[in-house]
Amino acid sequence: MMARKDWDTYFMDIAYMASTRSQCSRRHVGAVLVQGKKLLGTAYNGAPMGVPDCSEAGCMLVEEYELVASDGKEQVVKKQRCIRTIHAEQNLLLFTDREDREGSVVYVTDQPCWTCANMLANSGVSEIVFHRPYPKDSDKVRALMEQRGMTFRQLDNYEPPAGTVSEVKN
Ligand SMILES: [Zn+2]
Ligand SMILES: [Zn+2]
């Protein structure tokens, strides 16, 4: 018999399941809203309803320069990003009610970007649990979470369910 899963594993598994719905070839992100151990919403990154998504229309890529630190040295690196999709965290906020978010926990497969973190900080959510790191603006996001008094933690020793992980392009 399989060992019973703890709550963190259980809800992160569901976030990874949600992420498999994403049609963006660059990044599959899933997020779930949990209030008092009750699942109140699931979301993934995708184009608005009725609009062709990345699998039909291709990713909508923008290029930007990013300051990246490696081996103690800072370097400017050109990166590509798909802007066709609404991020999973933003979709989660669009499809849940304010009352359901008060004091809730968001489980998200990837560390939220600055915009999502900023929105989550004003959404009633009090804790964010993520799995894969996302280095861009990570310091700013952490500082924001601290200022806002929100719990922000990465799950370690966690293995996503088989078949739910796609390659991530940062
Ligand atoms: Zn895309
Ligand atoms: Zn985001």
From TrEMBL:
The keyword Metal-binding applies. Its cofactor is Zn(2+). It comes from the Bacteria. Residues 6-155 form the CMP/dCMP-type deaminase domain. The keyword Hydrolase applies. CDD domains: deoxycytidylate_deaminase (cd01286). One of its GO terms (biological process) is pyrimidine nucleotide metabolic process. This is dCMP deaminase. It comes from Paenibacillus tianmuensis.
